[in-house]
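TL;DR need structure tokens for one chain.
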Amino acid sequence: AAQSSIPEANNNPDFGADWSACVGAAGSHDAMFPDVGEDNVHAAAINCIAYYGITVGKLDGRYAPGEHVSAFQMGRFVRAAADLMGADGDAVLGGVELSDPVTR
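>> reply
TL;DR here they are.
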């Protein structure tokens, strides 16, 4: 069997960031979602993207951090973050329609 040259995915970044937009109120550990406690390793990042309106969570007020993020949802995050920073979110997505089927 042929071996893939694609490394196995992991949740560890290659390099740590030296800066963050999540400072002040945006970097608060105050729970913005009832299902994301301070003990959640991603709580600060989740609260930050909620603070900036990149996500609003689920319709019932939860964030559901244990659920998989679909390509559609990630596209929405990328578009919202790009728009927030003054970039053209559609251009950043490279013409990919969020309704297109996902192939891997």
